[in-house]
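Below is one such record:
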Amino acid sequence: MNLNDKKTKKVVAGIVAGAMGMNIVPAMMPVVDSDLAGMFGVRAAEAAVPTELARNVAFTDTDTNGGQIAGNVTWEAAANESNITDYVVYYLNASDQKVGEAIGTVAKGGTYSVTINVDTAIPTGATQIGVFSKNTEGESATAAKVAIVDDKSGDANNAPTVTNPINDITGTAGGEAVTIDASGTFEDQDGDSLTLTAASSDESIATVTVNGTDIVVTPVAEGTATITVTADDGNGGKVNTTFDIVVSAAPAPANNAPTVANPINDITGTAGG
């Protein structure tokens, strides 16, 4: 520090005047000499919170119970760590907001990994894990993120159930198809997506197709056929429900009496001719 420097003298004069109660307002200027700042207890301009983020955040759930996770959250250093002292790991919701307290903190230059213990329940609302950069001024406004993919392979599968059986239907041979909405017919306790299939006991009487959750039955000929609808959860669980279609014969066409198309003209003749 050079006390003969003009800038130094100006700052010193202002500080001393203030200490003596003199009503002097020195011109505002930054303290550019770190020695001077330390001498008079003046805090140098603070660094901003980090903007550089960790890279390649990864997490694989090793806990096979649904609703619970375990494993290591790993990441790579930010491209520029000059303004970073630590990395802090949190759960995040779908809106990138922090859920609960930090999972862990790792100092810059350390092993970039945080362990989530077995049987850790996924916090309500958490859908992601985020790694924030940190320094003495605080944490970065955003995080490097990875989605939470819950491994449920160890859970016992519950087969779907029939909640609203389909009622029997009627149709007319050769008539219009009947469409049944089966979206509320089945339920799956595990929340699995269900795939529906259907079969007819006698396709000469009625055929059936499936379009999503719509069951489309087409009457063909007089008689009764049983339609079986199956819901499959994709994890080995299936359930069936059945209903009948009673097909009546097509009505006979209305009879039309014959008509005279060409009347016969009168004729003449001679007796004995």
In short: The first helix runs from residue 6 to 19. The radius of gyration is 42 Å. The longest strand covers residues 238-248.
